[in-house]
């Protein structure tokens, strides 16, 4: 295993003597694992995320990426280890106390949005951590914040549309706008570009790049299957395979052909151009020749 230790991991190790988390760490997982029905879904993982960091999590199907993100979202408790999110220990704090402080955009959330919901309501209702308006009353300041969030994703023109009529790419942008609505301290994006066509993907990656480079934007964790979807401005990477960490730390040190080859169990060649990454299976030396 080729593990790059982040300076925060070292700091966290030092503070192991005290049970509380370092206030600079938004995520502080210590030997955390999740086990279900006797199967280890992820871990043990020790992982720390600081205020200004933008992390990408990458790994094969079933590697445990979503499970790790659901822990970070406070949607799951660890089976073993200690997990602090926004300095609250999971298991000790009521999960709903965290929900407006963490912005989540995931396929699971997308599925739960009622088709007949108006886009501006999809966004504004995040302030109440609910999906689907019922009887909540929203102030003008909430409405303004919703418009601002939609603008940040280039989706303000969709505000009066009905969610069910949006394209896949439009839905993805709206759900991220919703995640930003509460001005969260932590932004968690699970495969935001999945299912998008080339234009939709590039539009989204460009928006996420702006967000990643904004010093006032929240710390961000992005799950992706494709290195091409990593926006410029991302600082750290965590590569998972079969629930275990292949490598984690600074993105240039971790996102390498070697680590991707280990994770995906085939020879992968990684290249970089114009600040973006590209990956392909390596050609075998002396490969196929015409007879
Ligand atoms: N509740 C559960 N009970 C048993 N196994 C589960 C449960 N939830 C997830 N798993 C399994 O845990 C493993 C990790 O799942 P997870 O969704 O975290 O992986 P992932 O890396 O996000 O995968 P993908 O890239 O396919 O979305 C998978 O093998 C999955 O089938």
UniProtKB/TrEMBL annotation:
Residues 1-20 are annotated as: Disordered. Residues 27-267 form the ABC transporter domain. Residues 1-16 have a biased composition (Low complexity). It comes from the Bacteria. Keywords: ATP-binding, Nucleotide-binding, Transport. Gene3D superfamilies: P-loop containing nucleotide triphosphate hydrolases. SUPFAM superfamilies: P-loop containing nucleoside triphosphate hydrolases. One of its GO terms (molecular function) is ATP binding. The keyword ATP-binding applies. This is Putative ABC transporter ATP-binding protein. It comes from Gordonia amarae NBRC 15530. The lineage of its organism: Bacteria, Bacillati, Actinomycetota, Actinomycetes, Mycobacteriales.
